[in-house]
Amino acid sequence: MYANSLPLHCTVAAGCGLLAHLLYFIHGEKDGKALRIIIAHLNAEVLLSAYLIRYLGISKQYLSFNTAINLSYFGALFFSIVAYRLAFHRLRHFPGPLGAKLTKAYGLWMARNVKYIDELCKLHQTYGDVVRVGPNELSIRNVETLLAVNGPGSKCTKGTFYEPLSEQGEYALAVTRDKAHHKQRRQVWEKAFNSKSLKAYEPRVKSSVDDLLSQIAAHEGKPMEVSHWALLFVFDVMGKVGFSEDWGAVKDGRPNPILHLLEALFTPLGRLGRWIWPIGFFVDTGLGNEDREAFEAWSNKLLAVRQKEGREGSIDIATFLIESFHEAPNFKAGLHNQNLLNGEGQPVMIAATDTVSNSISWVFYHVARSASLQREIYQAIKPLFTQGDEAITHISLSQIPLLDAVINEAMRLHSSATVGGSRMTPSEGLQVGDLYIPGDVNVYIPPHALHLDERYFERATEFLPERWMTAPKLIKDKRAFAPFTIGTYNCVGRQLALMELRYLLAYTVWNYEFAYAPGENGRRMEEESLDLVIMKAGKLDVVFKKRESVGL
Ligand code: HEM
């Protein structure tokens, strides 16, 4: 008798599947709710099992009922999702691979070689400027859209990518999606990077340059792996600038374990190809979170020590974060709880290490292969360097156009922020010229794709520093150069990054001539570079030789 009711049960289950989609999944964001959704389904499964066992006992029939009901529910749910995404979704008219239209898991395929950005650029070649790269996600390779999405007055917020990246539910500057909250946080961070603060950081950057120059002296004539030393250099700078600590990584010469943790943080993000809900799931369950937790514990401890001990008379990034924490809750821009303070401490390392070390590595990749470029840089810095160390400041270095031309060109060709941050369009949508982007859609404007676009840069794939100086015609639209992105969410640490790059390049060229090590052709660096959300340059061996002509 009960056995005859299987069709009815399956019909009800399929109806539930359809309703689950139409009443729940279709509405609002679900990226940060994976665990809750899985738990709800497991609970439903327990209830279903209890109900079936009551009538059928634990029997073969129970198993077949259970399986059929589940298949009906999930079959209807996924059928509805697929039909909706292909035929009814507000992005249905946008071109893109079928897999990407159906599921964001397509990102896994795109990231199979951990080179998501290269695959994305290929998709733009195939489909044009606007590509649907996920069910609710567009990648747009167009400078007008960059301005409309990120520029002044834009109503776009950060996208769903940032949703699972909270610290115990608190969203720090780099990940908050609430505009008002972001504005408050940004006031705090801007104090940490105003000209007075940057002035205080300058000697620390210089001392890390000196440490690196000592290592170069010790390794003279022997191959030095550029991306390894760049990472150690940046790590030390952030210790000094972020927390007034000297971690001595350059002096030590070995990778600090924290750098492994940082890489472990980024690797899943890179491998998942911007598919974000699994990250939320792992964060919420605590599964596979050992490295993340170890990094957080380390970062939180740094702040806790600073909160307890202080650093009399020493300004660093932590000073401003902690100061505003202590001023809360009366101070409008204050950080109002410890989780938020901890969350703010982490980007000091996360946003500032791989980004800068990638750029340094590529600067050296290009400069090392050209003795004539080194001579030009040497001649360009000579009037400043012959005035003595005191004349050499970040401001005076920033006034040497060739330094910036080389740095800009390296950052143009090898964007650290490969696809850039995701943004969400306002609910009314966004009109950019002829293009209408529907509301509540995640949009990426990949700087790397803009930087290599012939519409914006002539001979776009070539390293031509002169485009920033004597051959401006090679830049057709400067607005497309956005390594730090633009607008409200632009990089708050931009000047510090440039300070590190300018100091390191100038002092190295002043003191050394360098070239690829015997057997090195630079291909490893190109081929082994990984898109871990932030680009991680591959390996490159360079040999340094003390410049005999210093000062001549
Ligand atoms: C070459 C080096 C760097 C590059 C290319 C770079 C690039 C970027 C980009 C593209 C963004 C926007 C991310 C988004 O759209 O969500 C960003 C944001 C940010 N960067 Fe950097 N960055 C660099 C160095 C640094 C440094 C040294 C710091 C120092 C702590 C830093 C701190 C931050 C922070 C806190 C944000 C979030 C800003 C906000 O949301 O208001 N970055 N960076």
Protein model, in words:
This protein is of the alpha+beta class and 552 residues long. The chain has two domains: 2-88, no CATH class; 179-546, Cytochrome P450 (Cytochrome p450, Orthogonal Bundle), CATH 1.10.630.10. Helix content is 55%, strand content 8%. The chain is built from 23 helices and twelve strands. The chain has helices at residues 6-25, 34-56, 60-88, 98-102, 106-110, 116-127, 143-150, 179-192, 195-218, 226-243, 249-252, 257-271, 277-285, 290-309, 317-327, 338-350, 354-368, 371-385, 394-398, 401-413, 447-451, 494-511, 523-527; strands at residues 130-134, 137-140, 157-158, 223-225, 423-424, 430-432, 435-437, 442-444, 512-516, 530-532, 534-536, 541-546. The strands form four sheets. Strands 1-2-8-5-3 form a five-stranded mixed β-sheet, with helices on both faces. Strands 4-12-9 form a three-stranded antiparallel β-sheet. The longest helix has 29 residues, at 60-88. It is elongated and about 95 Å long. The model has no long low-confidence stretch (mean pLDDT 93). The structure holds protoporphyrin IX containing FE. The site of protoporphyrin IX containing FE (HEM) has 24 residues, from helix 8, helix 16, helix 17 and helix 22.
CATH architecture of the largest domain: Orthogonal Bundle
Number of domains: 2
Radius of gyration using CA atoms only: 26 Å
Q: Which ligands are bound?
A: protoporphyrin IX containing FE
Largest sheet, in brief, is:
5 strands, mixed
At the fourth CATH level, what is the homologous superfamily of the largest domain?
Cytochrome P450
Overall mean pLDDT? 93
